[in-house]
Amino acid sequence: MGSDGGNFYQIGKLANLLNLSPRTIRYYEEIGLLNSIKRAEGGKRIYTDKDFQRLKFITRLKHLGLTLSEMLELEDIYQIHQTNKKVLPRLLELLDGHALKIDERINSLNKLRADILNYQGKIRQKLKMVDDFQKGEVIHGRSGDHQRRPHSHR
């Protein structure tokens, strides 16, 4: 525990808590999504509860479909204005865009599903026709070794 009452985490512990790899956490730091990482004696990274919450937020945004560049855009807005008042409306815009893309994808998948079901119906009809034809040959005493008629030319 730190002197301010908050917890300190080494990268391995933090990674385990968040189900991330240490490399991912270091990458987020490298690209600027995770700032102000403290270092202990010997240069080891030490993460705080604030860092833990930040990584949870990044993970949540990733789950919601935001790209790293979109997250960096939000971080830039925050760094300029030092308030969420400008960040949150932009986040809503980004989420609206992702929701729209999901709706388009759902519509596309529903059309694909309808095409698949339609095609399955046609295949089932063909199979039934083949099955009925074969049953008809057996019923009429033909076992499939019938002779083909030569093509007649006009």
List keywords for this structure.
Multidrug-efflux Transporter Regulator, Chain: A, Domain 2; three-stranded antiparallel β-sheet; 67% helix
Outline:
The protein is mainly α and 154 residues long.
Point out poorly predicted stretches.
none
Helix content: 55-70%
**What is the subunit arrangement here?**
single chain
Helix count? 5
| SS content category | mainly alpha
Structure description:
The protein is built from 5 helices and 3 strands, in the order βααββααα. The protein has 154 residues and is mainly alpha-helical. Helix 4 runs antiparallel to helix 5. The chain starts with 7 loop residues before the first strand and ends in a 15-residue tail after the last helix. The protein is elongated and about 95 Å long. The model has no long low-confidence stretch (mean pLDDT 88). It has a 3-stranded antiparallel beta sheet with strand order 1-3-2. Strand 2 and strand 3 form a beta hairpin. The chain has a domain of 63 residues: Multidrug-efflux Transporter Regulator, Chain: A, Domain 2 (Orthogonal Bundle).
Helix and strand topology:
Blueprint: E1 8-9, H1 11-18, H2 22-31, E2 38-39, E3 45-48, H3 49-63, H4 68-81, H5 84-139
Helix pairs in contact: 4-5
